[in-house]
Design a protein that fits this description.
By secondary structure, the protein is an all-beta fold. The protein has a domain of 211 residues: Lipopolysaccharide (LPS) transport protein A like domain (lipopolysaccharide transport protein A fold), CATH 2.60.450.10. 2% of the residues lie in helices and 60% in strands. The protein has two helices and 43 strands. The protein has a 26-stranded antiparallel barrel. Strands 1, 2, 3, 4, 5, 6, 7, 8, 9, 10, 11, 12 and 13 form a 13-stranded antiparallel sheet that branches. β17 and β18 form a beta hairpin. The two termini are 50 Å apart. The N terminus and C terminus are likely disordered.
Length: 740
């Protein structure tokens, strides 16, 4: 029997309301109002039989009863509504679905006339994605408090196989769900792992998995380190508001004084601020935990923020400071090389910055001020310049078939506290540069498909230089220009299951010669290299202080093959010639002689399975001066990435060879072996080695790893540690995404 009855709306509303208290309410920050009695709400009731006793005012529906109100559905073997006592009772295989994926089950439920209070027997419910709670009875009082007896909670998927035990379950004599506070608290709770009791606590609480962010304990970090001994770090998340939180993580160890980490995040209407910091009062110590020096306050601060001025303009800042050079390495604090603003810092160098940017379809502007802190041996902050300010703006004009013109203006001020000797031998205290330039380029298709790309640019530089000597300051100006063209001829061959593209490329240009002999210090072009990414550009030098002048030409070949739908093979090779050698360029630049080395790159991409490539630099005898190989693998049970490199000469003028790789091997669908390895082959030592085992299923995560740092920096040498990580999803806000 199917009835569409408005007169029975209150029956359905009452029956559906009683299920809501039992862990299925959506997250709220105020007590949930009682269910409204909407007598005119459309209700659909299905049942084998519906009987109304007019003498007792009792309506009884029996046999596969189904009541639907909007997206909510009640199913039961029998539903009884007492008009006189204003109660509704559902009996037998009761199932309540709220339309949001949350379902509750019970043998019997009953609710009062206000639908604020009720009870259920043999109750169970789904919470969140995988959470399941069961109890012998559930009682709702005061419209927001739900009391459960003989409770079992787990976030593991349940299996009906005989003898199956979830990875973990929380059993308690009693539990209370406070809908207003969105917390679940337990009395006499026992944590079971695979059915074995492992931990008893008289009281325990965690957020309702359906709730939003909540204050509470996060996943701890524990282990043993040769530097600080056994340690335990326990983060606590304090949710200050929906847009702000604070994480406080004290770390206790047997070897050194306590360390407190404080992370703060705040989101505003127009942007955000986030900060990571730590503080301790301790001496310095070496890799073996031996302490020396004076006790003092030691700390670090990494922070950044970005804000919208309007839809086109932004401003932001980044702060990176620490009290001593090796502070982050002593306490294994990560994040020193993260990007926190407009530009990224160099390894072992902290960068604080304040910047603003603006951009639309044909205009770009950026301005910033930058302050560095050196962390390497021999770094003297008095010799490292403060960049106050740095300015760049560009306006692009599109002339259609006549090409595009980009006009740029750049300015920078470098201020030092002490005179520094630069790599090119010049002394500098303060340097100010202003540059204006215009770059034109276009593209034409000629004849059978030859691509001709002419270009021309002009530039003027003005430098104000002060070396702090008796001669005082001086001003140097220069005017530069370059013009030429790049010509290529892409040829395409289409075969069954394969497309091949071969493209010969040639470039020729002439620029202002002898522009590096005016005593201009090289501040911004210390490290660069002519490789396959810039060998065909008019100038291989992208910054300002060095200029590639005279006649130059490049010739090369690019090839690409698309095989089927999953395999792409690509390669490019080229070489550059110059009219005259320029002593301003060093060996690393690949522009120090008239002929550059051959530069090439090859890559094979098989989608998600394998992606491997190599970059090469070879001299006339085809001896390899540089090789850089990288690979990513995701095949069968193996996932990983690797990079191998070898340079005959690095920025310090010495040979450099190394290997960095990381991967995991899945023993089965839950257990895997993990490894990370960074090795300096030149010095025959490991920079970092980490290996361990990981277990992860639908509701838990466990990892134990051995880590060894082999790097040496002043008082810090090789160190070792063992780290433990264990988390249960669904408790304390931990989700599966947190464990990826």
């Amino acid at each position: 029997m199917v009835l569409r009855l408005t007169c029975l709306a209150s029956v359905a509303m009452a029956a559906l309301a009683v299920g809501a208290p039992a862990f299925a309410q959506p997250p709220t920050t105020t007590p949930a109002p009682s269910a409204p009695r909407e007598d005119d709400e459309d209700v659909v009731m299905r049942a084998d039989e519906i009987i109304e006793d007019r003498d007792t005012s009792v309506v009884t529906a029996s046999g596969k009863v189904e009541i639907r109100v909007g997206e909510r559905t009640l199913k039961a073997d029998r539903v009884v509504y007492d008009r006189v006592n204003q109660t509704v009772r559902a009996q037998g295989n009761v199932q309540i679905a709220n339309g949001d994926g949350q379902v509750q089950f019970a043998d019997e439920i009953e609710a009062d006339e206000d639908f604020r209070n009720g009870f259920a027997t043999r109750f169970s419910a789904r919470i969140g994605a995988n959470g399941l709670v069961t109890s012998s009875s559930a009682v709702r009082t005061d419209g927001t408090i739900n009391s459960l007896e003989q409770v079992v909670f787990t976030n593991c998927e349940m299996c009906k196989d005989e003898g199956y035990e979830p990875t973990w379950a929380l059993r308690a004599r009693r539990a209370t769900l406070d809908q207003e506070e969105q917390m679940i608290s337990y009395q006499d709770a026992v944590l079971e792992v695979r059915g074995v009791p492992v931990l008893y606590v008289p009281w325990f609480a965690h957020p309702d998995p359906n709730s939003e962010r909540r204050s509470g304990l996060l996943v701890p970090d524990a282990g043993i380190s040769s530097k600080i001994g056994p340690f335990y770090e326990q983060p606590y998340l304090w949710v200050i508001s929906p847009s702000e939180d604070l994480t406080i993580a004290p770390m206790l160890s047997t070897g050194v004084a306590p360390l407190v980490k404080v992370d703060w995040r705040r989101r505003f209407f127009s942007g955000f601020i986030q900060a990571e910091s730590s503080l301790t009062y301790e001496q310095e110590f070496d890799s073996d935990g031996e302490q020396f020096g004076d006790e003092t306050w030691r700390s670090h601060l990494y922070a950044n923020g970005r804000f919208d001025i309007d839809k086109d303009w932004q401003w932001g800042f980044g702060i990176e400071r620490q009290t001593d050079d090796l502070y982050d390495q002593r306490y294994d604090i990560d994040g020193e090389d993260d990007l926190r603003g407009l530009i990224a810092s160099q390894p072992r160098q902290l960068l604080s910055q304040l910047y603003a940017t603006g951009q639309d379809k044909d205009f770009y502007f950026e301005a910033g001020a930058f302050l560095f802190q050196g962390l390497r041996l021999g770094d003297d902050d008095a010799n490292i310049p403060k960049v106050i300010p740095a300015l760049f703006t560009q306006k692009v004009f599109d002339f259609g078939a006549a090409g595009q013109l980009a006009t740029d203006f750049s300015a920078v001020g470098l201020m030092r506290d002490e005179v520094a000797t630069l790599p090119n031998g010049d002394l500098a205290l303060d340097t100010v540069r202003a540059t204006a330039s215009a770059d034109w380029g276009s593209q034409y298709i000629v004849g059978p498909g030859v691509v001709v790309e002419p270009f021309a640019s002009g530039r003027g530089d003005t430098y104000y230089l002060d070396d702090g000597g008796v001669d005082g300051s001086r001003t140097v100006s220069r005017f530069l220009g370059v013009a030429g063209a790049q010509v290529s001829y892409p040829m395409i061959s289409r075969q069954p299951g394969m497309d091949i593209i071969i493209e010969p490329i040639a470039m020729a240009a002439y620029g202002t010669p002898d522009a590096n002999d005016d005593g201009i210090p090289n501040e911004d072009s210390l490290v660069f290299e002519a490789d396959e990414s810039n060998v065909f550009k008019p100038s291989a030098v992208t910054n300002y202080d060095l200029w590639e002048g005279g006649a130059r030409a490049s010739i090369g070949l690019s090839a690409t093959a698309h095989v089927g739908s999953d395999l792409t093979l690509s390669a490019i090779v080229g070489r550059r010639w110059r009219e005259d050698a320029d002593p301003a360029f060093d060996d690393l630049s690949n522009l120090d002689e008239r002929n550059s080395d051959y530069v090439a790159s090859v890559r094979a991409d098989m989608g998600r399975i394998v992606d491997v490539g190599a970059r090469l630099r070879m001299d006339d005898e085809l001896d390899i001066n540089r090789v850089d190989i990288d690979a990513n693998v995701n095949f069968w049970r193996v996932r990983g990435n690797a990079r191998y490199f070898r340079l005959t000469q690095n920025a310090l003028g010495v040979e450099d060879e190394g290997l960095v790789w990381a991967g995991s091997f899945a023993v089965d669908d839950k257990w895997s072996a993990i490894v990370q390895h960074a090795r300096n082959i030149t010095e025959n030592e490991d920079i970092r080695l980490s290996m361990g085992v990981r277990y992860q299923d639908d509701c838990s995560f466990f990892q134990i790893a051995y880590e060894r740092s082999g790097g040496r920096d002043r008082t810090l040498g090789p160190s070792e540690s063992i780290r433990f990580t264990f988390a249960l999803t669904g408790l304390g806000g931990v989700t599966e995404d947190d464990l990826d």
